[in-house]
Amino acid sequence: MQLVFASHNAHKRGEVQAIMADVWPSVDIVGPKGDPPEEDGDTFTENALIKARAGFIDSGQPTIADDSGICVDALGGAPGIHSARYSPSGEDTDNVSLLLENLNGVTDRRAYFVCVAALVDGDGEVTIERRWYGTIADAPHGGGGFGYDPVFIPDGQEHTAAEMTAEDKNRVSHRGQAFQALAGALVERYQGV
């Protein structure tokens, strides 16, 4: 079965394909047909549904999407839904640099990633939220992953998410947990399709 993944982020699409294939080997994840919609929701759930709805309207096919970001306790939950656009450039390295600058001298570095995975199809909508808890490192480490992975140390780990293998990260990350759960729900929803 083919699902549209409403994201132009090739890193995310590759992660989601690998995550969902572990639960649903026959699923084929393809990119969106239209331009990305404006993500003007106030929550991760609202933004995930905005993308999934737009993808479904553009393609007519069942569409999945996610909205994710990092929330830092000492910054009142920022960057939150603005994680991808935290710095003026929106580039990963600039976002990470601004986050570290804003945490300069801060000892409470607790944070968590949030991912809301969404499905929109002709039968309705499904959303699943998962979180991944940890702390923010003092400096980036590792060359894997993307986004804030080089500065996020998951609880119980000594290394950043960017130092994990893709397989290990997909098994435990916010996105991994959300899309594993969504894949399980979709297998039941589409059994026999």
Automatic annotation (TrEMBL):
SUPFAM superfamilies: ITPase-like. It catalyses: dITP + H2O = dIMP + diphosphate + H(+); XTP + H2O = XMP + diphosphate + H(+); ITP + H2O = IMP + diphosphate + H(+). Mg(2+) binds at E38, D67. The active site is at D67. Substrate binds at S7, H8, N9, A10, H11, K12, S68, F146, G147, Y148, D149, K169, H174, R175. Keywords: Hydrolase, Magnesium, Metal-binding, Nucleotide metabolism, Nucleotide-binding. It is an enzyme of class 3 (hydrolase). CDD domains: HAM1. One of its GO terms (biological process) is purine nucleoside triphosphate catabolic process. One of its GO terms (cellular component) is cytosol. Pyrophosphatase that catalyzes the hydrolysis of nucleoside triphosphates to their monophosphate derivatives, with a high preference for the non-canonical purine nucleotides XTP (xanthosine triphosphate), dITP (deoxyinosine triphosphate) and ITP. Seems to function as a house-cleaning enzyme that removes non-canonical purine nucleotides from the nucleotide pool, thus preventing their incorporation into DNA/RNA and avoiding chromosomal lesions. Homodimer. This is dITP/XTP pyrophosphatase. The lineage of its organism: Bacteria, Bacillati, Actinomycetota, Actinomycetes, Micrococcales.
